[in-house]
Amino acid sequence: MSMYGNEVGATTRLPGNSLGLFETSASTMANIAPALSVFLTIPFLVAEMGTMAPWIFILAAVAILCTGVAVIEFTKRLPSAGGFISYITNGAATGGETSGTVMGSAAFYLLLLAYPVSISSLASFFGYWLQTYFNLSPDTWIYFAVASILLAIPFLLKGTGVSVKMAFALFVLEAAVLVVFSIIIFIKNPSAMNAPFHSVSGLGFKGMAGLSFSFAFFGFVGWENSAPLAEEARDPGRTIPRTIIISVGVCMVVFFLAAYALVVGFVGWQGATAGIHSLATYAYAAPYLTLSAHFTPYLHLLMFLVGLSSALGGVLAASLPATRYFYHGARAGLLPKSVAKVNDKTGVPHVAMWVYIGSVLTVTIVLDLILHNGVTISGDESGISTVPLLIVYALTSLFLPFFITKRDPQNFNVLRHVIIPYFGMIVVGYGIWSTIKPGQAFPANTYVWYVLAYVVVALVGAIYGISRRTASHELLASGLND
Questions:
Q1: What residues contact 209, with CB distance under 8 A and at least 6 apart?
Q2: Which of 55, 118, 369, 453 is 20–30 Å from 17 (CA)?
């Protein structure tokens, strides 16, 4: 008998074998939201690296894949809706069941706190993008942001397949427009095509250190989207690893082409020094819209829609792993058991979905009441929600070799299970430190206090679950194979 039968009830089982490689890859690429990421990060990267900024996305993708190796190796042996929660619980349990429960519970609460803030960042950008494009009153962005969250609900309620298809359609729009736009820019500016091969302004590859690499690395956040979909995937031991590789690879190409085109376009239009200076000094609030208006006015509206589709697609796609984490925590006793209920007809963990939507709406509305400015809120939310995710990435890489030596010792491989994931862990640690280290004006010094608050609340929640004996180690560590 399944362990879920007596402990939680039959209504808490997710529908297995319902997602193929297309569905998992589509939702992951939409979650990465490459257009939104490159729109927000490229001016800063150009300020640091000058004309050579596009290359950083290739290096960041390699670093992401090193971290992804840990997820791939865990998923092959432990496909679970808990994703990182199950991985960390099992890995840390090599030091005892209690340590595994504490670490897994802490990982759950980090994700519980980080995801609503992260998705609120996408919704806030959606609202800001509409407000600025139509030159509306500054206080109107919040209505559009709330609307973007509410728009996701019908698709989420109809089933995972429906929401995935919609998210993928939005991703295709942004990727296609960016690729076509890039090709046109290349054709119209042949003399500037070699600009990214020569260092003009900025520090070149030396400027890749510190926040530059962190920003490029952060751009790929969402690559882990497929891990908590493992219980619903067909042949998850193969599907999830392929999804990670395909998604990171495709988004790397989109990132690189879009960044390359922006540099080539501004160099061809204004000259190398003046063009890079315009980007680095934020002379244009939306450089892609500016460049589109200059070279491809017929794509200007589509470029605007790309910003909307990227944000909305991210809201839809990120809702899938978020609700699975809420669901997994509930069935393990870290949230009320009712949150783990699954709709019999759609297979959607609908209670977890409503809790998640309520959390995102609350964060968005409360921050509007405090800060008012949509772009400020979006940027700050992105920063303070990403670091907790990076902590979870790092812990997963840290515990991989311990898990393998206990669960599958005959297949232990030093390169695959220690060197590569630990390199990824070091890169992630570097990204964390670059974001929270004191004494820097950007990002704000207050980031470290937000991150500290995340960690404290997560640990308090974990200790409370242990002391009240509400947290089930067996269910927290569980996966499909159990």
A1: none
A2: 118
Please count the structural domains in the chain.
1
Of the CA atoms within 13 Å of residue 37, those in its CB half-sphere come to: 30
* Domain annotation covers residue 482: no
In a domain, 481, yes or no: no
Residues 6 or more apart whose CB falls under 8 angstroms from that of 178 comprise 34, 35, 38, 254, 257, 258, 261, 306
CATH number at residue 277: 1.20.1740.10
Other C-beta atoms closer than 10 Å to the C-beta of 37 total: 25
Buried b (16+ CB within 10 A) or exposed e, 200-214: bbbebeebbebbbbb
Tens of pLDDT along 426-458?
Answer: 988 988 888 888 777 666 677 888 889 999 999
More confident residue, 471 or 76: 76
Residue 237 in domain: yes
Which residues on adjacent β-strands are paired with residue 233?
19
Domain assignment of residue 266, given as a range? 3-476
| pLDDT tens, residue by residue, 208-232 | 766 788 788 878 888 988 899 888 8
Question: What is the distance between the alpha carbons of residues 48 and 319, in angstroms, rounded to a whole number?
Answer: 33
User: Can you give the pTM of this predicted structure?
Assistant: 0.89
**Residue 395: Cβ-neighbour burial (10 angstroms; 0-12, 13-18, 19+):** buried
Strand partners, 19: 233
Mean pLDDT of the chain: 88
